[in-house]
Amino acid sequence: MAAAQVLRSEWTKIRSVSSTVWTLGLAGVVTIALGMLISILSRNDYDSLNAKDRLTFDPTYISFAGMSLGQLAMIVFGVLVVSNEYSTGMIRTSLAAVPQRGTLLFGKVFVATLLALAVGLATSFVTFFAGQAVLGPYRAGLGDPGVLRAVIGGGLYMTLIAMFSMGVAAMLRSPMLSLGILMPFFFLISSILGGVSATKKIGRFLPDQAGSRIMQVKTPFDDDTPYGPWGGLAIMVAWVVLALLGGYALLKKRDA
Amino acid sequence: MIEAVGLTKRYGAKTAVYNLSFQVRPGTVTGFLGPNGSGKSTTMRMILGLDAPTTGQVTIGGYPYRKLPNAPRQVGALLDAKAVHGGRHARNHLLCLAQLSGIPARRVDEVLGVVGLQDVAKKRSKGFSLGMGQRLGIAAALLGDPQVLLFDEPVNGLDPEGILWVRNLMKALAAEGRTVFVSSHLMSEMALTAEHLIVIGRGQLLADMSVRDFISANSADFARVRTPDSEPQHREKLTAALTEAGGQVMPEQDGALRVTGLPLPRISDLAHGADVRLWELSPHQASLEEAYMRMTQGAVDYRSTIDQRAGLQEQLPPGAVPQGQMPVAGQGQPGWYAPPPPQQGGQPFAMPQPQMPQPPQDPAGTPNPYAGAPQPPAAPVPAAAPAPAPDLTKGATDNEDAAR
């Protein structure tokens, strides 16, 4: 009963602010547009590739190249959904209406997750088809082995990034602090850690690197990653669960 | 009914609320008074289960808020008028709160009408004035038609018409048998709205009584009687006569007498009977505001100092007379009916100040910024200029000691 009320209320909250439309819209547009751009460049570049690179040429993963930027908009969405309550002070009114704090937090996360999943899946499919259309002769089809898993996985990846951000924002409360930590982390630090050979073994267990594995259809030759696509997604899910539980524990304990 | 027992809240080393016990009863408006930072909002948050008390507990209808069945339908609160998402329009703000509490959407339109915001219902609250924000907050508190209502500073930012509206609304809600708990730092407003007062300072209970009792206990009406200076024996005679008739007589520093417990005509008759001439017989009344100031002055956390503007002034050449030393009209000049000066550290009338009209001296208890500075000859300052700063500190420590 209380849960249904929270869900209805959270839906009203989320649809009645313009930041929802902006962040989710931007996530979709950026991912699709950048994916198409990279796909065009890759197509023009294909002739200069050597035989080895041609073998591991992954048209599905190339069309998802825009996600590295698009996920930033998803992070902003996840952070704002939670921290808006704190920055406006409305959390007090909300918690006075729903003294069961867990119900409020998970109701909010649930509604925002459903919305992110819908947008994420739509973005993923549109990105895939747009990218393949641009790739022309080198394109992959949805029926090729592993491709459907990668495309659905792309939507799940975006959703999980948003969920992780919600958990972090629930812990940190301040939108500026949350964004200031999450944005550079996912845009710079994670890729630096994953790119340098010394830290690569640690870097690949970070949520975005483990999770993005599900979007790859073909793996590189020298790949020694100890997990598969679903294993990687499971690692990301573990991160998300950890962040949300942390947020819940702090919300439960803390003065509002 | 709200009941607090031994409520204490510490934030690290700072104690925001200490050992607060009180009851808020249904059917009346209960005013919750205290200076800024005295713990009013913290107490309100603890009542609503938002902050957990360090020790003690507070219950509504016998339940701690978090265990209260159907809490949002029983308790409505306005905590902070600015606590709305500026990008959300007024109706949606109320709608999401209503849905959170399982209240039908048509109730939202009702309360929007009650607070007079129906015309801006679809406007983003970003553009609202503070007064409109207060109305929106009050609307949110009324949503569930609750039996217990809490308002934290509801008249802040309202225009006079709005203040009157809030006052009548509170009274009407209480008349319907609801429990109405209203915090404010404005004594004058509470005197008009509330029937019962809970006064706190520095997180501790200073008074818990009806407004009528508070007035009679603190308003301190007295008569000032002055006999001719040349005949001190007449003064003794009159004191004896007045005391015999049941009045309390306290001597003032300049030789006048402060008489309580006797009406003015009776004092005159007694003086006439004792064959004592009077140079002065005047009524004095300390306002409720004064009584409140006196009560809370030891408990004020944020006290302003005089702006000396020294940082803005150029260095004067040696021997030059500083400019701008003339007293400002209406400031620092004791009125004939000035209430007892508040620099006695919460001990009413213990150490009365001279009340004769005289050159600048500050009855408001602020240190005279000109007292120590070189004076132009035109504005001499009496040698007995008050130096109230030590008194204030003394008052504050007295207060703390007394409370322990």
From TrEMBL, chain A:
Which keywords does the record carry?
A: Membrane, Transmembrane, Transmembrane helix
Q: Does the keyword Glycoprotein apply?
A: no
Pfam families, per database record: ABC2_membrane_4
Q: Which residues span the membrane? A: 21-41, 61-83, 104-130, 150-172, 179-198, 230-251
List the PANTHER family.
Answer: INTEGRAL MEMBRANE PROTEIN-RELATED, MEMBRANE PROTEIN
Q: What is this protein called?
A: ABC transporter
UniProtKB/TrEMBL annotation, chain B:
Q: Does the keyword Transport apply?
A: yes
The record's annotation in PANTHER family points to: ABC TRANSPORTER, ATP-BINDING PROTEIN
Instruction: Give the UniProt family note.
Output: Belongs to the ABC transporter superfamily.
Official protein name in the record: ABC transporter ATP-binding protein
Domain ABC transporter intervals: 2-227
Q: Which CDD domains match?
A: ABC_BcrA_bacitracin_resist
Identify the SUPFAM superfamilies for this entry: P-loop containing nucleoside triphosphate hydrolases (SSF52540)
Query: Which top-level group of life is the source organism from?
Result: Bacteria
In this chain, composition skew of type Low complexity spans: 344-353, 363-373
Fetch the PROSITE patterns from UniProt: ABC_TRANSPORTER_2 (PS50893)
- Matching Pfam families: ABC_tran (PF00005)
- Keyword vocabulary terms for this entry: ATP-binding, Nucleotide-binding, Transport
- Segments carrying the region annotation (Disordered) are 315-404
- Keyword field contains Plastid: no
- Give the residue range of the signal peptide: none
Give the molecular function GO annotations: ATP binding; ATP hydrolysis activity
Task: Give residue spans, biased composition: Pro residues.
Answer: 374-389
InterPro entries referenced in this protein's UniProt entry, alphabetically = AAA+_ATPase, ABC_transporter-like_ATP-bd, P-loop_NTPase
